[in-house]
Amino acid sequence: MRIVITGGSGFIGSHLCERFLDDGHEVVCVDNYLTGSPKNTDHLLDHPAFSRLECNVSDGLPVEGPVDRILHFASPASPIHYMRYAMETMRVGSDAVFHCAELARQHGARLLVASTSEIYGDPLEHPQRESYWGNVNPIGPRSVYDEAKRFMETITMAYRREHGLETRIVRIFNTYGPRMQLDDGRALPNFCAQAIRGEPITVYGDGSQTRSFCYVSDLVEGIVRLLESDFPEPVNLGNPDEITIRQMVDEVLELTGSNSPVVYRELPQDDPKLRCPDIRRAKEVLGWEPKVGRREGFQKTIDYFRSVIETS
Ligand code: UDP
Question: The pTM is what?
Answer without folding.
Answer: 0.97
